[in-house]
Amino acid sequence: MKILRNNKLEKIYLKTMELSLLASGDGTEIIHHKLYKGARLAIIPDENWTALEFITILSGKLTYNSLGGDIVLEAGDSVNSCPITEHVIFIAETEVNLLYVTSQPQFHYYSNSVKDMLDLALQVEQKDGYTADHCERIKELSMKVAKVMGLSPDKLFILNLAAFLHDIGKIKVPNEILNKPTGLTDVEYEIMKKHTTWGNEILSGTNFVELIKAGEIVEQHHERFDGRGYPNQLKGEEIKIEAAIISVVDAFDAMTSDRVYRKGLEIKVAYEELENNKGTMFNPEVVDAFLLMMTETDSRKEVIT
Question: 236: phi > 0 → left, psi -120 to 50 → alpha, else beta; which?
Answer without folding.
Answer: left
